[in-house]
């Protein structure tokens, strides 16, 4: 059984994510998962087999902090080297409109295998726009509360106290989002091509036209060609 669609170079492709966005996404994914598993060791306090993978509870604490620093650096790297990309991402989220609402309402049916006609989407569909708000917000909360917990002596005691539940709630919410997101961005039938966009940088033009018609038309279609010729 083939889980991901084949990467086809013989079919026209268009760029979806540049190198900086891809490097940030995957370094962030690895560090997020390391923080999650080492964090669970500290959170659950009785998972000896998981602690053993990281060399015990102290080892898990160390891997947690190292991964946290690399995660922070990769976020800063993204801000410094692809600031324009972040602004364009925010602009796309702000375009949330009726087509996105329809997408989110129809998506459960599509997920269950019913044939549905989705309205045309911009660069990110309605669900991805939601993910773009919820997951990064949770990550920002994890980073802020994490450093407060790490260096409690330089922050007010009340702030240190609330940092713990904030870190835990953001961890649970982000993990639920990432589980759904990872499946939809890889093995979910029909959307697997998006994985190649994040892995190699390009997606099939026909897939882009079908899944992100507005983005495709504005970036690569006749409208874009006319505008660049003017
Ligand atoms: C910059 C990012 C982060 C920093 C600085 C950070 C820092 C910390 C620190 C200092 C602790 C306390 C460790 C101890 O008690 O020895 C902690 C605990 C924890 N972290 Fe993080 N963390 C970060 C990101 C994450 C992420 C991304 C996750 C999960 C997705 C996560 C999940 C947890 C969990 C579950 C705990 C245990 C909390 C508890 O015992 O109530 N952390 N973190
Ligand atoms: C674990 C495996 C993961 C896979 C397979 C995966 C896959 C993908 C793919 C294919 C895209 C591009 C979707 C598109 O074409 O628009 C994407 C975007 C994105 N990813 Fe991931 N990802 C993973 C983990 C993560 C993690 C851990 C985070 C953050 C904590 C994350 C945050 C995002 C965000 C915010 C976007 C842009 C919004 C969106 O498309 O939903 N991803 N991911």
Structural class: mainly alpha
Strand content: under 5%
| Share of residues in helices | over 70%
Strand order of the largest sheet: 1-2
For the record, the CATH architecture of the largest domain stands as Up-down Bundle
Number of domain units: 2
**Helix and strand string, N-terminal first?**
EHHHHHHHHEHHH
Main sheet record: 2 strands, antiparallel
Mean pLDDT: 95
For the termini, the CA-CA separation is 48 Å
CATH homologous superfamily of the largest domain, by name?
Transmembrane di-heme cytochromes, Chain C
Give a structural overview:
It is built from 11 helices and 2 strands; from the N terminus they run βααααααααβααα. The protein is an all-alpha fold. The chain folds into 2 domains: 66 residues, no CATH class; 147 residues, Fumarate Reductase Cytochrome B subunit. Helix 1 packs antiparallel against helix 3, helix 6 runs antiparallel to helix 7 and helix 9 crosses helix 10. The longest helix has 28 residues. The termini are far apart. One protoporphyrin IX containing FE binds next to helix 1, helix 3, helix 6 and helix 7.
What is the gist of this entry?
By secondary structure, this protein is an all-alpha fold. It has a two-stranded antiparallel sheet with strand order 1-2. Bound molecules: protoporphyrin IX containing FE (2 copies).
Keywords:
230 residues, mainly alpha, Fumarate Reductase Cytochrome B subunit, 2 domains, two-stranded antiparallel ribbon, 3% strand, elongated, binds protoporphyrin IX containing FE
């Amino acid at each position: 059984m083939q889980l991901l669609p084949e990467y086809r170079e013989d079919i026209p492709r268009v760029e979806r994510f540049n190198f900086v966005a891809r490097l940030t996404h995957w370094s962030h994914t690895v560090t997020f998962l390391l923080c999650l598993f080492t964090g669970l060791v500290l959170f659950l306090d009785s998972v000896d087999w998981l602690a053993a993978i990281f060399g015990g509870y102290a080892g898990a604490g160390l891997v947690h902090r190292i991964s946290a620093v690399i995660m922070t650096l990769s976020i800063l790297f993204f801000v410094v080297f692809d600031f324009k990309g972040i602004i364009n991402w925010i602009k796309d989220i702000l375009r949330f409109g009726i087509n996105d609402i329809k997408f989110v309402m129809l998506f459960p049916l599509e997920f269950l295998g019913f044939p549905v006609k989705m309205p045309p989407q911009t660069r990110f569909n309605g669900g991805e726009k939601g993910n773009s708000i919820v997951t990064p917000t949770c990550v920002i909360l994890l980073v802020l509360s994490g450093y407060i917990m790490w260096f409690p002596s330089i922050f007010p005691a009340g702030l240190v106290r609330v940092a713990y539940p904030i870190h835990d709630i953001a961890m649970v919410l982000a993990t639920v989002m990432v589980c759904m997101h990872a499946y939809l961005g890889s093995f979910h039938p029909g959307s697997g091509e998006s994985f190649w966009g994040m892995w190699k940088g390009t997606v099939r033009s026909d897939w882009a036209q079908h899944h992100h018609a507005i983005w495709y038309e504005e970036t690569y279609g006749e409208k874009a060609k006319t505008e660049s010729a003017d």
